[in-house]
Specification:
The complex is a heterodimer. Chain A is of the alpha/beta class. Chain A folds into two domains: 171 residues, Rossmann fold, CATH 3.40.50; 66 residues, no CATH class. Chain A is built from ten helices and ten strands. In chain A, the strands form two sheets. Chain A has a six-stranded mixed sheet with strand order 6-7-8-3-9-10. A four-stranded antiparallel sheet of chain A has the order 2-1-4-5, with helices on one face. In chain A, strand 9 and strand 10 form a beta hairpin. Chain B has two domains: 93 residues, 2-Layer Sandwich (Transcription Regulator spoIIAA), CATH 3.30.750; 244 residues, no CATH class. Chains A and B meet through helix 3, helix 4 and helix 6 of A and helix 1, helix 2, helix 3 and helix 12 of B.
Chain lengths: 256, 379
């Protein structure tokens, strides 16, 4: 077992997840430190999204322990769990905006549930959040079906940030965005991390994001973390998948 | 970890100046308290020479706190004197800069309810009814045109899809249709015997059961069940395909969605309803017969003899002629509603509901039209 770092905001120990006969995660350990942007990579189908969904409690695990904010999620009672859920925000791969609510109502939904504040403050905070993710206030009264793919991701991020969480999970935030839009999104995540002091757990396939946005990278393979460290560590690694990933044709295009 | 402590906002009026000092945790957790503090402080505005907001004692700040401090600063800035924020730590300055760029929120404009607005609503829904009828005729035409094309090129007919839908709407519907029509047959028979017995006319229950089941109830009941069971399924399937752009994808690949998706469904429904109506009628007669025997003392032999005299092949034909037409009406309504679904889950729900409601409504209207028609040709 790796030494426990005192400032780990997520601590995952010996997690095993199995679907039928296939073991997706096999005794996985992972620490996410406070204030960092952790990029999480791995081959398609390796279980990156499964790990994310296991941490946030959407996928049941066979064994292991998950601590978020120092609270063991298995032994937490429902009040503690709600407390944890209030302190994290999640951006799903497809946005998962509520399709029958407007952008404004989508962002206000979690705030309305957890805090008893006036409609005026709600509206002001909504506009502030939209501004933070780079959207104009005019978008507020549109429905999700009237938004472009990039706007959906931004609104979903604004909703994830609605309660000013300390920890944000981003599941492939830049997939489906054009390179400029993706670059803006990375920049946005960086800015928000600086201004709000966020910890970001980002599942990604985007090499640019890894280079520009992430402080640390963890690589998933065969149900375990095969490497974790800075981008320089990754490039120096001799692991065959890492070599292919960071020294392939597309990787060279990013570096040069 | 930062210890969360209650936020405070104290003020000192010094001559012509106002000094506010914020302390504690200015975070979302305390948003309701913070809002009250800021509202109270905003009332202190007036003509002042200088206003300072000291935030050096603030132990935690997030978007909520930063915005409320910014809002306070804006509201206190009156008469050319700009309120100053002082003691801002480096960690928080970028967050405050961020909220400083926020423009005042536009109010959530709610339309006031007016008389003319209500009238407009009524007018629109009446016009919408016309639009509904038009789109049904439109769909009927499109389906017939697609059927014509398929007849000319029989290879383009989607047999697998049709068989699949036939299994869904016919084979899998048999148990529930048979069960319900059996029970309805029992009830009609029991009620008939109960009331006819007073006139000593028990045996006429067989006439009533035969005519009612074969001509009206059998097919009508089954059509209503199919509208609820399969019409709604068609609308939901087509609607969610529309939402995920699957129908657009088909079109761009050069396929006609009517031919690929709607024709097999329509055909399956048109084949299924007469079969289900036939099975339903048998089940209802069987149920009615059992009750007549057990409750009314009409033994099976007498029941069959009476039934043979009471009904003619016409009754049966009338029922079966109606079935495919009703199936077509249900199918067209379901497909029109499915394709009208917009991007939201709410819209899918609305159109599925209206598919069933309109489907049942048109089935009953059709039944009335048929009743007039068959009466005038003497069937």
């Amino acid at each position: 077992m790796p030494p426990a770092t005192s400032d780990a905001i997520i601590r995952v120990r010996d997690i095993t997840v199995q679907f039928g006969a296939t073991r997706v995660l096999d005794g996985l350990n992972l620490d996410v430190r406070r204030g960092e942007i952790l990029g999480f990579v791995g081959p398609s189908g390796a279980g990156k999204s499964v790990l994310t969904r296991t941490i946030i409690g959407l996928v049941p695990k066979l064994s292991g322990r998950i601590e978020v904010f120092g609270i063991d999620l298995d032994s937490a009672d429902s009040r503690q769990r709600r407390g944890v859920e209030r302190r994290w925000g999640i951006l799903f791969q497809q946005g998962a905006l509520f399709s029958s609510l407007t952008v404004r109502q989508n962002i206000q939904f979690p705030v309305r549930e957890y805090l008893n504040v006036s409609q005026r403050l709600l509206d002001e905070i909504t506009i502030a959040k939209l501004g933070m993710v780079g959207l104009k206030p005019e978008v507020a009264d549109r429905f999700p079906s009237e938004l472009s793919g990039g706007m959906i991701k931004r609104v979903a991020l604004a909703r994830a940030l609605a309660l000013d969480p300390e920890l944000v999970f981003l599941d492939e935030p830049t997939s489906g965005l054009d390179p400029i839009g993706a670059g803006d999104f990375d920049e946005l995540v960086r800015t928000l991390q600086r201004t709000l002091g966020l910890t970001v757990f980002m599942v990604t396939h985007d090499l640019d994001s890894l280079y520009t946005a992430c402080d640390r990278i963890a690589v998933l393979g065969n149900g375990k973390i095969i490497a974790a460290g800075s981008i320089a560590d990754m490039q120096a690694s001799q692991h065959p998948w890492l070599r292919a990933y960071f020294h392939g044709k597309r990787a060279r295009a990013v570096v040069t | 970890m930062i210890v969360a402590n209650d936020p405070t906002l104290e003020h000192i009026v010094r001559g012509n100046g106002l000094a506010l000092s914020a302390a504690g945790s200015w975070t979302a957790r305390f948003a309701p308290e913070l809002e009250q503090l800021v509202l109270a402080a905003e009332r202190l505005s007036g003509t002042r020479a200088n206003i300072f907001i000291d935030v050096s004692q603030v132990s935690g700040l997030d978007t909520f706190g930063a915005w409320l401090i910014e809002r306070l600063r804006r509201n206190l800035t009156t008469g050319g004197v700009e309120a100053q924020i002082s003691g801002l730590s480096v960690n928080y300055s970028s967050l405050v800069d961020e909220v400083r760029r926020v423009k005042a929120a536009p109010a959530d404009a709610a339309e006031p309810v007016t008389f003319s607005g209500m009238m407009e609503q009524i007018g629109r829904s009446v016009a919408g009814t016309g639009g509904t009828l038009l789109s049904l005729v439109d769909m009927l035409g499109a389906v017939l045109a697609a059927a014509g094309r398929v007849m000319r090129h029989p290879r383009s007919f989607r047999l697998t899809s049709t068989v699949h839908h036939l299994e869904q709407v016919c084979w899998r519907a048999v148990p529930i249709v048979v069960l319900i029509t059996f029970l309805i047959g029992c009830i009609i028979s029991q009620q008939g015997i109960f009331h006819f017995r007073r006139f000593g006319a028990d045996i006429f229950v067989v006439d009533m059961l035969g005519v009612l089941v074969l001509r009206e109830i059998g097919v009508l009941l089954v059509a209503i069940m199919v509208a609820g069971r399969s019409g709604s399924a068609y609308t939901a399937e087509l609607g969610s395909m529309k939402m995920r752009e699957e129908i657009d994808a088909l079109r761009t690949m050069g396929f006609d969605p009517i031919e690929v998706l709607i024709l097999p469904r329509m055909l399956a429904l048109i084949l299924a309803l007469p079969i289900l109506a036939f099975l339903g009628a048998i089940a209802a007669l069987y149920g009615g017969g059992l009750v007549a025997w057990g409750y009314g003392g009409v033994d099976p032999e007498a029941f069959l003899l009476r039934l043979r005299d009471a009904i003619s092949i016409d009754h049966f034909t009338v029922g079966l002629i109606k079935a495919p037409v009703m199936a077509a009406v249900i199918g067209i309504v379901a497909c029109v509603e499915g394709l009208a679904v917009q991007g939201s889950a709410e819209s899918l729900g609305q159109h599925t509901t209206s598919s069933v409601v309109k489907g049942i409504f048109f089935v009953i209207v059709m039944d009335g039209v048929f009743a007039i028609f068959f009466a005038s040709i003497g069937m």
